[in-house]
Amino acid sequence: MSQLLRGGCSCGRNECFITIPLAASDQAEVYFDSSSLNRRTQAAPLTAWLRVPLEWYQSSTVSYFPDETHAAIRRTFVPPEDPHCRRVFCGFCGTPLTHWTESPPEEADYMSITVGSLFSQDQSALEDLGLLPEDADTGAPVISTSTSTSVTPAPSSSRQVASTEPQMFVTRQRGTLGGIPWFEEMIEGSRLGRVGKHRRGVGGNESMHVEWEVTEWHDTTPSIGAETHGAATASPRISTKRKSPQVG
Fold first, then answer.
1. Which of 33, 43, 137, 222 could form a disulfide bond with 226, CB atoms 3.0-4.6 angstroms apart?
2. Backbone angles phi and psi of 149, in degrees to 5
3. What is the block-wise mean pLDDT of the chain (248 residues), using blocks of 10 residues?
4. Phi (first) and psi of residue 148, to 5 degrees
5. Which is it for the CA torsion 84, 33, 4, 6, positive or negative?
6. CA distances in angstroms from 57 to 19, 39, 68, 241, listed in the order given
7. pTM of the entire structure?
8. Contact 17/5 with Cβ under 8 angstroms?
9. Can you give the C-alpha Rg of the chain in angstroms?
């Protein structure tokens, strides 16, 4: 038996298929690279890769117009400072796809595929296949934090406000919409997971103008002057700021 993982570029012209035999899944692994070379070529401080034997990987291209050639769709870049390396990306949407190198020579038998180019359901399957680093499974549940704020216009002294008044709802969720659960578990509690999140919005109708602002952050140290009892624990804090509605 085997597991088929699929992926491709953003525009859909490049497709890839990774067949992982369940009896030999230990030959594949997910690793993270933050080297200076990967930071420049991937334009990201940290890149996740799926490394598999070369014979497990297959790719194909799809042309949308008659003048689109295979060489134009599947582009290869050889870094001048690393001539033993081949990096493949889409020539139309620019999605980074694979990385292959023959330095050291034994690496020539493997292909590294960007985890971000895999389909969402196949990204989640990496955990079920046991391909993640050993310290990735922390056992901590994914925390989902949400706030909801409703704003209604102030009633006029000469008329009653109907029950169908317009409302503005602000919702913030983490770890459930379009993300990779196992990756968010890895960064939960780390410095990346404590980066502040800030959102603003404007809404309303002919008789009301509403501006809302939601700020969410994680703090692992108590504020100066705050009373502490026992061991301090990290907890998410949510601050909501709302401006008064302006009735036209």
1. 222
2. -130, 130
3. 94 97 90 86 88 96 96 95 93 96 93 95 90 59 39 46 42 45 69 55 64 55 46 42 48
4. -140, 130
5. negative
6. 7, 24, 23, 51
7. 0.59
8. yes
9. 25
